[in-house]
Structure formats: C-alpha cells, structure tokens
C-alpha cells in the first residue's frame, strides 16, 4: 500500500514514519521543512527502500498535484500544519493562511482523484475547554485560539468537501501528544531541556490547566488501525485517559531527573488559555479495539531518556530555531 504523509518531518510525522516503516507500506513524506522539522539524517528507518522524502510546500497546489500524481498513493495522512498555540496568538494570519490552504489543497486533489482515502489529523483543541465533562465526537466545536480555530475550520472544510463531492475522508482528534522528536518549544520538551541545564521551568499561570497526555506511539497505532479499517465520514477521538495538571507533569518530570537544580517559575498566563481538555475515546476503543499501550509514567521515562541521549538532535534543531524565538 502506498501512503503519503504530509508534514512527515514534524514531531508526530517523524514518529509515524518510523512506526509505519516497520510494516508493509511504501511511504512518501512531503514536508516544506519548517523550524520545527526533524532533518532526514535523524530518521531511524529499517526499510530505507520503502521510504522517500520530497521537500514540498503543500500550499503550492501545482507542486502538490505533480508530486502526488507521480507517487499514486492510496492513502494521504494529513499532518502538515503550524501547530504551536503561542505562535498562533502572535501571528494568527499565518495559521489561517497555511493550515486551511494545506487542507483545501489536499481536498482539491482528492476531488480529482476520488479513490484516494484521507486520514486528517485534527486535535482535541477544536472542542475548546471544559470544566468537568468529556467531549464526544458529536460535541460542538468551540475553539479558543487561532490555532484551534484554524484546525476546526479544516474539519468543517473536510465535512463540506466530503458531502459535496463524495470523498473518502476520516478525521482523528488526538489529545496532547508527547514523546521523541517533539520540538523543544512545546510543554514537555521545554521542561526536560530546561531541567537538563538546571534552568528555571516556566509554567503558565498557576499550572492548574489540565491536559490529556497520549504517548505519540499510541497515536501512531490509532492511525494504523484507521488505515486497516477505513470507513469514510468517521471522526475518532484519540485520548489516553491520562489527564493531569501542568504543574503535576512538571513536578513528575523534575522528580524523574533526580539531580537537577531546576525550580518551577510561574509566568504570566497565555491569553485565552483553555483550562481543561478531556476526550471521550470510547468510539475508537470499541469500534477499532484501540487502547493506549504506554502509561504516562513509562511514556515520561522513555521521553526523558530520548532527550538525554539525543543531544545532537537538540543542538541541531535549536540552531535552526535561532531567530524564530517568541517574544
Ligand atoms: N503534537 C500534538 O500534541 C498534537 C495533538 C493533536 C493534534 N496534532 C496535530 O497533528 C499534526 C502534527 O503535529 P506535530 O506536533 O507533529 O506538528 P509539528 O509542528 O511538529 O509538525 C508539522 C510539520 O508540518 C510541516 N508543514 C507545515 N506547513 C507546511 C506546508 N505548507 N507544506 C508542507 N509541510 C508543512 C512542518 O514543516 C512540520 O514538519 C498537526 O496537524 C497538529 O495540529 C498535534
């Protein structure tokens, strides 16, 4: 089976390619390579002949069409997006211009090639914040940030194209992912890399915000389940059920470090900061027999180990980061 992964050089994409490469798939990664991308030399591929990479900006439809016509995929897994909420607050326009155009270009291609199946990676953030309840796939979309509203817009675009042109689309809404290769500006890598250097750990507000943490390999497993059991017009939440306050995650990581001198430092809260995300993931558990394989503790240990042993990756990605720093 021939699969195109858009944004395959990002955090989830890099893990997904390493994961799917162990199976019987022929993979093409198309990515424009942003500051958050992982360079090809860091990919661990067992079957190199089953994988190729092309530098493509998906906002360029002609280039996308030419690339996909040549590869002839049966699946497209759409991960490409600008993904950092803080950046979306500073430059909202970039998020709407890029995230929506990427999705629309992929849909335009599907409109002309109706046999291809799309697995689009959305996010739990499209539902907005909740004090107590868990969001189901049918819950209303109520995004709070420019990032999450651009993602919700993509979901609506897919819905409309699928209805109008009878396309084969499926949407996954994963909760917060963590694991290897996540760019160091995100929450868990920030804590780990600061702790490595004995620097203060910045935490928004009082650290009371709750997130549901899914180990990235469990999201890859969910994607594999969708590939093998594809049904059009389905939406699946993908959440591990491990919900924790940010402050507790930070303290857990510091405890696992043993020797660090880092201390938590509370900083001014993010504008429009969602208080709590929580998914009801019964649908994917019952229909596709998916369940998370990695506990939060094991996932954090694995992630810390990865960052401790991949200092070259940190150095390399940080170098690209110069000039892209926020604030
Ligand atoms: N990381 C999470 O916790 C999480 C949770 C839920 C959903 N998601 C979604 O999963 C997807 C992947 O997330 P991630 O954390 O890997 O993001 P990431 O920022 O690490 O990677 C995104 C990749 O997309 C690429 N890209 C961006 N614009 C592009 C363009 N115009 N053409 C080609 N490539 C382009 C970037 O170069 C980058 O390599 C995103 O759509 C995100 O919204 C992420």
Overall mean pLDDT score?
A: 95
Helical residues, percent: 40-55%
CATH class of the domain at 2-179 and 215-239 and 272-294: Alpha Beta
* CATH level-two architecture of the domain at 2-179 and 215-239 and 272-294: 3-Layer(aba) Sandwich
Termini separation (Å)? 44 Å
Which molecules other than protein and nucleic acid are bound? nicotinamide-adenine-dinucleotide
- Strand content is 15-25%
Count every beta strand, where a strand is a DSSP E run of 2 or more residues.
12
CATH superfamily of the domain at 2-179 and 215-239 and 272-294: NAD(P)-binding Rossmann-like Domain
**Per CATH, what is the topology of the domain at 2-179 and 215-239 and 272-294?**
Rossmann fold
Neighbour order of strands in the largest sheet: 3-2-1-4-5-6-10
As a whole number of angstroms, the C-alpha radius of gyration is 19 Å
Strand-and-helix sequence, N→C?
Answer: EHEEHEHHEHEEHEEHEEHEHHH
Largest β-sheet summary? 7 strands, parallel
Gross morphology: globular
Low-confidence stretches: none
């Amino acid at each position: 089976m021939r699969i195109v992964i858009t944004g395959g050089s990002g955090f989830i994409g890099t893990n997904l390619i390493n994961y799917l490469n162990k199976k019987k798939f022929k993979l093409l990664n198309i990515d424009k390579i942003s500051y958050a991308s992982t360079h090809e030399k860091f990919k661990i591929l067992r079957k190199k002949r089953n994988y190729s990479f092309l530098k493509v900006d998906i906002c360029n439809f002609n280039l996308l069409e030419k690339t996909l016509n040549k590869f002839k995929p049966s699946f497209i897994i759409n991960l490409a997006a600008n993904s950092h909420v803080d950046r979306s607050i500073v430059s909202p326009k970039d998020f709407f211009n890029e995230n929506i155009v990427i999705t629309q270009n992929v849909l335009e291609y599907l409109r002309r090639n109706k046999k291809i199946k799309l697995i689009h990676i959305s996010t739990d953030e499209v539902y907005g914040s909740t004090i107590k309840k868990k969001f189901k796939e049918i819950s209303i979309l109520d995004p709070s940030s420019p990032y999450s509203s651009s993602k919700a817009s993509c979901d609506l675009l897919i819905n409309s194209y699928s209805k109008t042109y009878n396309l084969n689309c499926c949407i996954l809404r994963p909760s917060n992912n963590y694991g290897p290769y996540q760019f160091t500006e995100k929450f868990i890598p920030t804590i780990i890399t600061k702790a490595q250097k004995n620097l203060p750990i910045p935490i928004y507000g009082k650290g009371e915000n709750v997130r549901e943490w899914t180990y990235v390999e469990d999201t890859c497993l969910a994607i594999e389940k969708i590939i093998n059991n594809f049904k059009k017009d389905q939406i699946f939440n993908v959440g591990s059920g491990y919900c924790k306050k940010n402050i507790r995650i930070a303290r857990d990581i510091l405890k696992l470090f043993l020797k660090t001198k880092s201390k938590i430092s509370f900083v001014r809260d993010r504008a429009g900061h969602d208080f709590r995300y929580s998914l009801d993931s019964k649908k994917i558990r019952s229909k596709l027999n998916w369940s998370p394989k990695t506990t939060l503790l094991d996932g954090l240990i694995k992630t810390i180990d990865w960052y401790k042993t991949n200092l070259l990756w940190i150095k390399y990605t940080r170098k690209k980061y110069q000039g892209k720093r926020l604030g």
